[in-house]
Amino acid sequence: MKPLDENEIRNSFVNCSKGEARRLNLPRGLAELPWSALDFLGWRDPGAPDRSYLVAERDGAAVGVTLRVPNVRRSLTRTNVCSLCITVHAGSGVSLLTARRAGASGREGNSVGTYMCADLACSLYLRGLKKSALVSRPDESLSLEEQIARTAANVNRFLDQVLGAGVSA
Fold first, then answer.
1. How many structural domains compose the chain?
2. What predicted TM-score, i.e. pTM, was given to this entire model?
């Protein structure tokens, strides 16, 4: 992913107001992030634990979505799989993250959700730069490049649902 600055990130959000985008907490150490190892930028809001954010490149432009994290504790005895990167985590390592749809549909209260790595560090798990607690990534026959492409396709499919692009409600 190409490095993004604060203005590019704030201007990328499609499912919140400009005021909300101006007020959201950006990830710390933005300039020091491992941009070349990121397929998308994702972070939890340290000031609001029920909020997360995801910014990805689509057609040469950054597209960002605000996400909500339900306040549900999951059992550490269960394992769950991220639907974006297929990393297996102990129960609390995967969360159902929901995004208000963009436009009129979102203003009417419609949202979409999917199970994701709770810390949104999918790119780092794929590359072995971060390890899932208690559980290791499954061995796959796909190459790293194919796994990255699959993750990008999964992110784009989720963004299509948020944007309402070619998806029936």
1. 1
2. 0.90
